[in-house]
């Protein structure tokens, strides 16, 4: 059997095993794509920063209120009620008001829609690039990996920035409303957990929003992508 016949009879599974894109190279390509589309990446990350910042602000503000409720006076509890917190006088547990919870949900939904829209536009702009990559042998899993890596980079950067911004805003607001007790009575372990929760929520949100556009890009036939009229 000639080498040509051997290649012709190679099974699809064997061909897939022969095509390898190292993870480090995938990260490099994803980072280069983000830099090449810096303005669109900043818009996507910016919407994530705003949503996560508000979530972090509410969570940390609730932590501040919890510290005040556990160690504060009756006057402090009245101040918390006036600030819109739901305080359990028996256990000292504090929850954000219903209005804040609805605003969080709506802001996260708007952020998700914005990211999906931005990623779909990114896929449309990259039809030819995706087609060339697939013609050169890129597998669907490689295309999917590149889009997910871009989402992870945007998600980590945007979520971390939003969590820190929300923390700063919550502490500033607590100092303005309750004085230095907002910091001295603050349970920092709960604050750290809130920051992790806000950052994780933003990252999950970014990945969930990019999943559908990434699948569309990965399943795109090479010929159709190359013929796209942009």
Key traits:
11 helices, mainly alpha, 2% strand
Residue-averaged pLDDT, rounded? Answer: 78
Portion in beta strands: under 5%
Biggest sheet descriptor = 2 strands, antiparallel
Helicity, as a percent range: over 70%
Number of helices: 11
Distance between the termini: 45 Å
Spatial order of the strands forming the largest sheet: 1-2
Q: Could you list the spans in which at least 5 consecutive residues all have pLDDT below 50?
A: 6-10
Give the CA-based shape. Answer: elongated
How would you describe this structure to a colleague?
It is a single chain. The protein is 81% helix and 2% strand. It has a two-stranded antiparallel sheet with strand order 1-2. By secondary structure, it is mostly helical. It starts with a helix and ends with a helix. The protein has one domain (22-226). Keywords: Cell membrane, Membrane, Transmembrane, Transmembrane helix. It is found in: Cell membrane.
């Amino acid at each position: 059997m000639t080498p040509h016949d051997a290649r012709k009879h190679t099974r699809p599974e064997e061909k897939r095993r022969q095509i390898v894109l190292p993870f480090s190279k995938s990260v490099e390509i994803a980072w280069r794509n983000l830099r090449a589309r810096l303005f669109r990446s900043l818009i996507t990350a910016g919407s994530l920063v705003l949503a996560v910042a508000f979530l972090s602000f509410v969570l940390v503000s609730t932590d501040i209120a919890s510290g005040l409720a556990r160690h504060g006076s009756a006057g402090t509890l009245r101040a918390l009620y006036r600030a819109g917190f739901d305080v359990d006088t028996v256990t000292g547990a504090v929850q954000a008001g219903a209005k804040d919870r609805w605003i969080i949900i709506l802001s996260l939904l708007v952020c998700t829609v914005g990211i999906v829209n931005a990623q779909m536009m990114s896929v449309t702009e990259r039809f030819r690039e995706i087609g060339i990559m697939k013609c050169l042998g890129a597998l669907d899993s490689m295309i999917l990996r590149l889009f997910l890596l871009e989402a992870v980079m945007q998600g980590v950067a945007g979520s971390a920035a939003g969590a820190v911004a929300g923390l700063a805003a919550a502490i500033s607001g607590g100092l303005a409303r309750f004085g230095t007790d907002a910091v001295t009575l603050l349970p920092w372990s709960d604050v750290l957990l809130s920051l992790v929760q806000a950052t994780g929520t933003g990252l999950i949100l970014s990945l969930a929003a990019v999943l559908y556009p990434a699948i569309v890009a990965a399943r795109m036939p090479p010929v159709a992508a190359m013929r796209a009229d942009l």
